[in-house]
Amino acid sequence: MTAFPWLSAAIWIPILFGVFLLWAGRDGSAGVVRAVALVASLIGLLATAPVVSGFDLQRAGLQFEEKAVWIGTLNANYHLGVDGLSIWFVPLTAFITVIAVLAGWKAIGERVAQYYASFLILSGLLIGVFSAVDGLLFYVFFEATLIPMYIIIGVWGGPNRVYAAIKFFLYTLLGSLLFLVSLVYLYQGSSGSFDIFAWQRMPIGLTAQILLFLAFFAAFAVKVPMWPVHTWLPDAHVEAPTAGSVVLAAIMLKLGAYGFLRFSLPIAPDAAHHLAGFVIALSLIAVIYIGFVALVQTDMKKLVAYSSIAHMGFVTLGFFIFSQIGIEGAIAQMVSHGFVSGAMFLCIGVMYDRTHSRNIADYGGVVNTMPRFAALMMLFTMANCGLPATSGFVGEFMVILGAVQYDFWIGLAAATTLVLGAAYSLWMYKRVIFGGIANSRVAAMPDADGRELLAMGLLAAAVLAMGIYPRPLTDAMHQSVGQLLQQVNHSKLPAGL
Amino acid sequence: MSKFNLSAVLPEAIVLAAACLILVADLFISDRRRNLSYSMSLTALAAAALACWNLLDGQVVQYAFGGMFVTDPMAQVLKLFACLATGLGLVYAQSYARARSMWRGELFSLALFTLLGVMVMISANNLLVIYLGLELQSLALYTLVALERDQPRAGEAAMKYFVLGALASGFLLYGMSMLYGATGTLDINEIAHHIAASQVANRPALVLATVFLVAGIGFKLGAAPFHMWVPDVYHGAPTPVTLLIASAPKIAAFAVAFRLLVEGLAPVSGDWHLMLLLLAMASLAVGNLTAVAQSNLKRMLGYSTVGQMGFMLLAMQSGVAGGTTASAASAYGAAMFYMVTYALATLAAFGVMLLLSRQGFEAEQIADLAGLFRRQPWYAFVMAVAMFSLAGVPPTAGFYAKLVVLQALLADSSSLPVVWIAVIAVLFSLVGAFYYIRVVKVMYFDAPVDQQPFEAAADMKIALTANGLAVLVLGVLPQYLLALCSSAMVRTLGG
Fold first, then answer.
1. Contact state of B429 with A177 under an 8 Å Cβ cutoff
2. Do B394 and A139 touch (CB under 8 A)?
3. What is this structure's pTM?
4. Is residue B1 part of a domain?
């Protein structure tokens, strides 16, 4: 008996609901549309539960594998599966989609059906990226995510949304097109296979590996985003609607980092070692320089966007120190950042819905009018600067530990994030939340309502759970990371070179 | 070989008969009952398509008219899509043509004659037959461009098209005459035999012939630097005619390129292979860069066509280098798939433009699409799918077209730096993505300017919906069409 295709269910249930909303949804029945979207996202989340509960911790290879012929002429398969590297991103995506549905509940009043349909379709596509193990299938999902996000930013975004949407689209497309060329190159080199695992086993010469690595890098570094190709992110975040920012920060940035794990490291390991110094340098620039940039922002969304870049610098740093603790820490940081950055954007969205301002200077003393909100935001701010017992601590600590083992000075440079992160996060929190009530608009802010508290509460629970007991998280990835490290440390140069 | 073999030309016979019948019958049909001609044309197109489909089934290469005419699987697939494109073109033309007193018998019979020319070109196995088909197609199109005769712009476009088209025909004819002089035969298979057996004494004449033929094909495809007529004619012609020019004749030009270069001049492929590569790179650069500056959607699509043809030529030129029949079949199959998906997406784009046009209003500026998402979300979606397909973004059919072309290109194991050619090609397609997604931007992000409600005939709505969905469905499940193209190509080359 073949097992029930849970991964396919997690991909296609949201997409089909999205298509249904596009077809049937009207603005006149916005309430029904919202309810359907919420139900769809919850069903999507439920569909990922068996994937987590049935995951075998002792196996490094693929689980929940599904394989069917997709494009026979090209030998491309509909091949899905999760391993320790991707397992957490499937439920994370479904979970964040629930939060995104809640986040847009009241703020979006027109084209509601299309709005929710975009998010549901996006959710399915993102799960598709994390579970595809066929190169072409991965690429199709990876690229297809651009379209709904482009529409979300462009239609429901802020005043400068058109510029931000086009910049977002073209920037990411530039990277992905080079990635496409490298996929076709690998397809030819493996005599007609799109199987990622076949590519990982295939010997490749050093020059080719370096070119492949750079092409992958173009796609993934833009997506992460790494300094200096990060400039689309602050624009996209600032203009996107709240839920768009949440999904962008929590999930879409992970696509790039995940790509490093799935493609760059195992397919071009020698090039990865050759260019590790370069990537580490860029990561440290992201951590330190972008940390300073975040410090001087006056727009809350921009500040959190820059802090995202700094945090993602930690992820790439963790990958390229090639140690178990570094890579596991980096994946933990990815998951944690999914919760924390999503929560930060949600908090900003809650305030923005009330005052329609993102400027730090327009706030002050919010704690007086919104005490419950302020308490929850405190937690997320602390998690953002990596306080122990929050999820932010786990990944950062592991990566710093790994970095110190690798090279003390790199570890030291990375550790400055604890200071910088605390500085920009807490300073923003202080200016916005504490002090006397700054103006009449702040005085008129009602405290968070049940829906907002629910969304924030769910995220808070996740942040605390992961911070207090991170072991299930790392246990699941242990075997696969070990296998990945073996691949990375094993030269793939053809014999005789 | 010597017999007429009329069963092989059944599709052409149907189209010819229908064109003549409509030409005469329409004289006796009043304006009110013009739909009769329209339904007759659509019936004839459906019958011709069916005939192509029947011939395709398990077919090997057949000759007719003493070897002057060939029907092979490639020809049938291309003809099938040419019939489909012409049919969709007529359906889309409906409301536009009615509003401009173009809804006359001439439109139908000329469109059918164009299609006949296209089909003859696709199946020609003789230099003179190619020329015959080409002229039949071109003369019908010149007239169609000028159909709206009170419009000075249409007259200008027709003139331009005629002069440059005649020049292109001249190039082709000149090349053909030199080829005839060098080989002593008009039959394409014979030409290949002669050259392969090194019976050609005058090699310079052969090379010169190749140059002229490539130039003529470049004109017909609209590849740079022979693309000058494309934007002007696209812009000046009435939109339904632009649609006809942009779809079936491109398919025919591809077929002619295949017949002349791949079948006839295969032994000198080393010569034309690089010429095509240069045309391809020039087209990618000129087409994509110039399209960015256009504010008129028809001109933009014209320039973008130039870029698209560049991409197609990349696959075309890489068929030779692999050396094996299998690699050649996969490269020409890729080019063919590219043409078909390009035609489908272009049809949808022009269909939406025609839907928005009405009496006294041409929806041809990009700005005219503003806010379409708010007015007609479904047709905005169809247009968006067409644009994403032309840009090559998954999940649309255009993505696989780009993919198979890149694959054919990188399969080339010759000394060319194919990886860098591929990188340049995708960078230009990034430029292309900019102006395609700008159209999506205008439709989705801008506020509507034009608030007039628009009415469309039911058959047009159904056709446009089916067309958009086809591009999308082929983007999720492209297997069927890919297999159709590649197996047709394998059987054609194998025979």
1. yes
2. yes
3. 0.91
4. no
